[in-house]
């Protein structure tokens, strides 16, 4: 048992930023826009670091696929307590078409290469809301999956996962190695404190190319058009009930 | 019209006495007879800066004789002054108001409740009329009428003031600027915004953000406070360190004087040395000289890079050294330097469930940097943090560059006021002191009060030399108040500090101005 956890983190547009669609409707504006780590990935990193602190896992390795700037995201994870990082370089056209299928192939390859016991990911990314990478990775590796995890406990004979589902909470037990995806209530990510930020500067980030892992990045999807959601119409205030009824009649609702 | 302001008459006298240019005209006025500030103004102002004066009117009643600093306070801060002989509101008056402002002259006691009580719920007036004009012309007509009928008026903005100055003392008519919330003009080349005085600060910030600018001031009350009130109280806030006070950033004002006359100083010029700069009198006048109806203010560009740092220090001396270091290493990008003590953090934890982002320390600092280049700023910030850590000035800290985390770190400082209201009855003191003495007042006060107080906390704009000293007790306690005052004022006066750095005098501090000026 190597006791190694692989955590995937994604660099996305910061959730507080107002998104603007490109004039040619091919995508959203990303140049000069503030980016940060996907909030669910932060929760995944926090969970992995917690497991290491409890001495249930020995090493936390953080992975991100993307252009040069993804290294900042890896540094943030290192400042939160991860041990080392792997930056899978994907840029240009390949980065624009990078989706869950390609990322899960990369993660599966890395999991085998690094001999990982556990993969923890965020349940979904806030830019594409796919909610597929964790599930696809588990399928490719033929590992069990504990998705939408709101509670994780490592036991002698496996992992107990409490999942948030439509009907409430579901508790399952899965064997290791496994893939977990973090939901909102799993934990509260810690602030990266100064001493750790300083230490993170010295931690290693390895550079890897998808070709080295034998992964083919061609996408099966083509984005046809991106549009803003329709503008919300302003409401109207009326003074009396009669007014309301007549307005409803005019609008053909009554 | 009499404006019930004798409690701030000392402020008026104080301000006038200290200003050289007014001394000559004041010698001619007798303080035992009613004096009109418009007389004062008219004797000083050159032609063209004021409309011709129609008739002098009685504006102030200087019934109280001047204090000198050898007398003790005549009453404690929470005793209201007696009602002056203004007229009471009659049915005729109500008819006039209702005709002038259809649907906007309110007499329903339930609706009046919120205008009669201040934000801290510490003082309550008994006004029976709330007026909500929408234009300067309406304000002018209201004041002209009230002047002729000898009715007292209480101007009110967002009612977020902390010294009881925004609510009536007795039955004054409340004149609310809440409906005067239009933005008139924004020039995005120079960054000059012109708006009515009832615009809420946060709304102005949102409007400006869409146009690449920000307001030059920011305070915890931004969701409710109005720009007119900010100007009337010369609000300081969190950005004063970088952008300066409203005396510098306000370029022009439109004010309606007590007799209904509209004073148009609404210039949008950055530089104008033609005659006396009248608008400066109104900034910080707390509604005693007129009702501000429009403001033109210089707005800085929205910074492309904002970083917030939360640091922990062992001692106050180290905190001050960190301040010096930040001034030298961060220089022009330093936009805020605030501090709070461990007691504040305990209150935040207990009442608002906010967790400490770092390990527990005796003192915490919130530093904000604003600049136009994120690479440049981050490099400066990292160098500063490394230096601060290595020289052990700072024992722990965290950095935020994302908006959500920035808001979270700022809430550690901005929500202390809220946490205090949950802790019990709060006695608030807003003191300006020489920077090295700031925390000494807190420790001396703790020693002085001992077990009598529930919590004694200190926090504030240490970068501006401004301490917010707050003392809580489970309920209103006159004995505790007697122990706190005048101890806190005497202590402050001993070190040549100010007993009200930015909150103003209002009702609660009107008796203490002599601790600052003779």
TrEMBL record, chain A:
One of its GO terms (molecular function) is electron transfer activity. Its main location: mitochondrion. One of its GO terms (biological process) is fatty acid beta-oxidation using acyl-CoA dehydrogenase. Residues 25-217 form the Electron transfer flavoprotein alpha/beta-subunit N-terminal domain. InterPro entries: ET-Flavoprotein_bsu_CS, ETF_a/b_N, ETF_b, ETF_beta_N, Rossmann-like_a/b/a_fold. It is found in: Mitochondrion matrix. Keywords: Electron transport, Mitochondrion, Transport. One of its GO terms (cellular component) is electron transfer flavoprotein complex. The keyword Cell membrane does not apply. Belongs to the ETF beta-subunit/FixA family. Heterodimer composed of ETFA and ETFB. Identified in a complex that contains ETFA, ETFB and ETFRF1. Interacts with ACADM. Heterodimer of an alpha and a beta subunit. The electron transfer flavoprotein serves as a specific electron acceptor for several dehydrogenases, including five acyl-CoA dehydrogenases, glutaryl-CoA and sarcosine dehydrogenase. It transfers the electrons to the main mitochondrial respiratory chain via ETF-ubiquinone oxidoreductase (ETF dehydrogenase). Heterodimeric electron transfer flavoprotein that accepts electrons from several mitochondrial dehydrogenases, including acyl-CoA dehydrogenases, glutaryl-CoA and sarcosine dehydrogenase. It transfers the electrons to the main mitochondrial respiratory chain via ETF-ubiquinone oxidoreductase. Required for normal mitochondrial fatty acid oxidation and normal amino acid metabolism. ETFB binds an AMP molecule that probably has a purely structural role. This is Electron transfer flavoprotein subunit beta. It comes from Oryzias sinensis.
UniProtKB/TrEMBL annotation, chain B:
Its EC number is 1.1.99.39. It comes from the Eukaryota. This is D-2-hydroxyglutarate dehydrogenase, mitochondrial. Its cofactor is FAD. Belongs to the FAD-binding oxidoreductase/transferase type 4 family. It catalyses: (R)-malate + A = oxaloacetate + AH2. GO terms for molecular function: (R)-2-hydroxyglutarate dehydrogenase activity; FAD binding. It comes from Oryzias sinensis. Pfam families: FAD-oxidase_C, FAD_binding_4. Residues 123-302 form the FAD-binding PCMH-type domain. GO terms for cellular component: mitochondrion. Catalyzes the oxidation of D-2-hydroxyglutarate (D-2-HG) to alpha-ketoglutarate. Also catalyzes the oxidation of other D-2-hydroxyacids, such as D-malate (D-MAL) and D-lactate (D-LAC). Exhibits high activities towards D-2-HG and D-MAL but a very weak activity towards D-LAC. It is an enzyme of class 1 (oxidoreductase). GO terms for biological process: carboxylic acid metabolic process. Keywords: FAD, Flavoprotein, Oxidoreductase.
């Amino acid at each position: 048992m190597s006791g190694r956890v692989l955590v995937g983190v994604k660099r996305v547009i910061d959730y507080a930023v107002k998104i603007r669609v490109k004039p040619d409707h091919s995508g959203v504006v990303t140049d000069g826009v503030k980016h940060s780590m996907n909030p669910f990935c932060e929760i995944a990193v926090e969970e992995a670091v917690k497991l290491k602190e409890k001495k249930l896992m020995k090493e936390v390795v953080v992975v991100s696929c993307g252009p040069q700037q993804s290294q900042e995201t890896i540094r943030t994870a290192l400042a939160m307590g991860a041990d080392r990082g792997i930056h899978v370089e994907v840029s240009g056209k390949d980065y624009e078409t990078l989706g869950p299928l390609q990322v899960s192939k990369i993660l599966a390859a890395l999991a085998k290469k690094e001999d990982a016991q556990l993969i923890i990911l965020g349940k979904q990314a806030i830019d594409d809301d796919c909610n597929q990478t964790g599930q696809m990775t588990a399928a490719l590796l033929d590992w069990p999956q504990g998705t939408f995890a709101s509670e994780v406990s490592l036991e002698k004979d496996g992992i107990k996962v409490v999942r948030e589902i439509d009907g409430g909470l579901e508790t399952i037990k899965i064997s290791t190695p496994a893939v977990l995806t973090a939901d909102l209530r799993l934990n509260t990510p810690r602030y990266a404190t100064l001493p750790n930020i300083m230490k993170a500067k010295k931690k290693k980030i390895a550079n890897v190319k998808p070709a080295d892992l034998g992964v083919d990045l061609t996408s099966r999807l083509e984005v046809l058009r991106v549009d803003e959601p329709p503008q919300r119409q302003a409401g109207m205030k009326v003074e009396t009930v009669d007014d309301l009824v007549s307005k409803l009649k005019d609008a053909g609702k009554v | 019209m009499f404006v019930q302001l004798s409690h701030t008459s000392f402020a008026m006298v104080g301000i006038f006495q200290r200003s050289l240019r007014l001394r000559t005209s004041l010698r001619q006025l007798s303080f035992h007879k009613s004096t009109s500030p418009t007389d004062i103004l008219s004797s000083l102002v050159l032609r063209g800066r004021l409309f011709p004066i129609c008739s002098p009117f009685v504006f102030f009643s200087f019934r109280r004789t001047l204090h000198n600093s050898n007398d003790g306070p005549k009453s404690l801060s929470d005793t209201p002054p007696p009602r002056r002989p203004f007229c009471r509101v009659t049915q005729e008056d109500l008819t006039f108001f209702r005709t002038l402002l259809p649907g906007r002259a309110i007499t329903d006691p339930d609706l009046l409740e919120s205008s009669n009580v201040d934000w801290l719920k510490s003082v309550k007036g008994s006004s029976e009329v709330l007026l909500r004009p929408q234009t300067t012309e309406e304000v002018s007509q209201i004041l002209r009428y009230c002047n002729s009928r000898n009715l007292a008026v209480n101007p009110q903005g967002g009612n977020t003031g902390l010294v009881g100055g925004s609510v009536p003392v007795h039955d004054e008519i409340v004149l609310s600027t809440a409906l005067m919330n239009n933005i008139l003009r924004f020039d995005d080349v120079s960054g000059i915004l012109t708006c009515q005085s009832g615009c809420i600060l946060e709304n102005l910030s949102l409007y400006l953000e869409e146009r690449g600018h920000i307001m030059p001031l920011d305070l915890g009350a931004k969701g409710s406070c109005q720009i007119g009130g900010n100007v009337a109280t010369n609000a300081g806030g969190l950005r004063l360190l970088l952008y300066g006070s409203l005396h510098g950033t306000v370029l022009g004002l439109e004010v309606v004087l007590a007799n209904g006359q509209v004073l148009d100083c609404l210039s949008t010029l950055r530089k104008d040395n033609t005659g006396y700069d009248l608008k400066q009198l109104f900034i910080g006048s707390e509604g005693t000289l007129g009702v501000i109806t429009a403001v033109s203010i210089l707005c800085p560009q929205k910074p492309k890079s904002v970083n917030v740092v939360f640091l922990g220090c062992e001692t106050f001396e180290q905190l001050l050294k960190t301040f010096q270091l930040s001034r030298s290493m961060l220089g022009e990008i330093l936009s805020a330097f605030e501090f709070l003590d461990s007691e504040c953090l305990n209150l935040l934890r207990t009442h608002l469930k906010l967790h400490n982002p770092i390990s527990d320390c005796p003192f915490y600092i919130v530093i904000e940097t604003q600049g136009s280049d994120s690479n440049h700023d981050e490099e400066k910030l990292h160098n500063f943090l490394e230096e601060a850590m290595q020289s052990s000035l700072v024992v722990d800290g965290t950095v935020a560059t994302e908006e959500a985390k920035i808001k979270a770190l700022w809430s550690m400082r901005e929500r202390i006021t809220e946490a205090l209201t949950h802790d019990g009855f709060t006695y608030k003191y807003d003191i300006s002191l020489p920077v090295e003495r700031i925390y000494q007042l807190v420790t001396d006060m703790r020693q002085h009060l001992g077990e009598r107080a529930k919590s004694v906390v200190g926090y504030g704009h240490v970068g501006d030399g401004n301490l917010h000293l707050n003392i809580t007790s489970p309920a209103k306690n006159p004995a505790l108040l007697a122990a706190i005052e005048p101890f806190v004022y005497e202590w402050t006066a001993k070190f040549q500090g100010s007993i009200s750095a930015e909150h103003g005098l209002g009702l609660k501090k009107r008796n203490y101005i002599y601790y600052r000026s003779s």
